[in-house]
Amino acid sequence: WEKPIYLLRAPGEGPSSIQGIPAGDTVD
User: What is the top-level taxon of the source organism (predicted)?
Assistant: First the structure.
């Protein structure tokens, strides 16, 4: 299940606390 981080974080805000990938990308 892909959950767009940009819906939770503003792009460029920083790495996701879940996967550690840049905001704006998607995680499973």
Answer: Eukaryota
